[in-house]
Specification:
By secondary structure, the chain is mostly helical. The protein has 13 helices and five strands.
């Protein structure tokens, strides 16, 4: 990785301070996650039928967040694609959390911080996400004891408890506490997804302007990065295709799906992948963009997708570029819309959707 003299990730340092019963540290990539990453690389290799991805090395761009599990996930995908151990290193770009653009950053954006605070306050005061929830979610609320409610801020927020129970559910031999069923876990996952969608401007009821601003604050820098990869692909000769890999978090996948207008109202499962293809259509020689996603093929919230990629969007290059450009913000425009950077407090990054 090319990172210069970069400080270790504060996210890693905080999570690794907590040792789990089996010996692993909180937030580390598990053996299951490592296998999922290699399997994703193999699926991509099978889809594109490239005999030797080494041929793409000069036109390969890789980027990951400054968190070890994302770095390792990218490495697993590269191995699955066919970049063998012991060959020349693949150069990977990363940035410290204080400059990260692959995830939303409340700690660097005062206006986004205020927007999310208003959303959370509304959830706590109105309880609309509880009162309008399915019966499975209400049964879960009744099962969670008072001390756990206080620990996880539940049901005012569903995200921290969702994270904990999904992690437990990923361990096949581990029983969920309090007699939680899979239906109730699925309802919790959906509630967390709806909560974060609200932070991104989906279903806030505030009207188009406020919803669009929330999305631009959260996903503007990410969409700018995707646009850069898109333009590089278009500029390349047809005989010399490019490949750009971005390794991030669920808080990377979800804002991108919302920005593209293809959000499926589900939390992205482990190792979910969004693919943007730039193609030249044979019948009219027109450039088109195709978006594929595999999130809905996950058999359970804790599992990686198992089925094929499916097309969620296909349109002309100009239309697709306009869709991204409507959200994208460069660093100066994003800083101006944010109202200036917050003083200090950027060490931990900005990919947390919890309380």
């Amino acid at each position: 990785a090319r990172s210069g003299a970069m400080r270790p990730s504060a996210v890693d340092a905080q999570q690794r301070s907590h040792a789990l019963a089996g010996g692993a540290r909180s937030g580390e990539l598990t053996r299951v996650g490592w296998a999922q990453a290699q399997a994703l690389g193999a699926r991509l290799r099978a889809r594109y039928g490239v005999a030797d991805f080494e041929e793409l090395r000069p036109r390969l761009a890789c980027r990951t967040t400054h968190v070890s599990r994302c770095v390792l996930t990218l490495r697993g995908v590269l191995l699955g694609l066919g970049f063998a151990e012991g060959t020349a290193p693949v150069v990977v770009e990363t940035a410290h959390a204080s400059r990260e653009t692959l995830t939303p950053s409340t700690k660097r954006c005062p206006r986004l911080t205020r927007h999310w605070a208003r959303c959370r306050a509304a959830l706590r005061s109105t309880r609309r996400h509880v009162d309008t929830s399915p019966s499975a979610f209400r049964r879960l609320v009744a099962k969670v004891p008072a001390d756990a409610r206080a620990t996880f801020g539940f049901p005012a927020t569903a995200v921290p408890l969702k994270d904990a129970l999904i992690a437990l559910d990923s361990l096949a031999a581990e029983e969920l506490p309090w007699g939680v069923t899979q239906d109730e876990l699925g309802a919790l996952d959906d509630a967390a997804a709806a909560e974060v969608a609200l932070l991104l401007g989906v279903g806030s009821g505030d009207g188009g302007a406020d919803e669009a601003e929330a999305l631009r604050l959260a996903a503007g820098p990410l969409c700018r990065d995707v646009l850069a990869g898109l333009d590089a692909a278009v500029a390349a000769p047809a005989s010399k295709p490019t490949l750009t890999l971005l390794s991030g978090h669920d808080t990377t996948v979800k804002p991108l799906l919302v920005a593209l207008g293809v959000y499926d109202h589900k939390w992205p499962p482990f190792c979910a992948c969004v693919v943007v293809e730039v193609l030249r259509r044979r019948r009219d020689d027109q450039l088109v963009c195709r978006v594929l996603y595999d999130g809905a093929t996950s058999p359970a919230p804790a599992a990686a997708p198992e089925g094929p990629f499916y097309v969620v969007l296909e349109e002309t290059y100009e239309a697709f570029r306009g869709r991204l450009a409507a959200v994208a913000l460069d660093a100066d425009a994003w800083g101006e819309l944010c109202g200036g950077a917050l003083e200090g407090g950027v060490e931990g990054g900005g990919d947390t959707f919890g309380p």
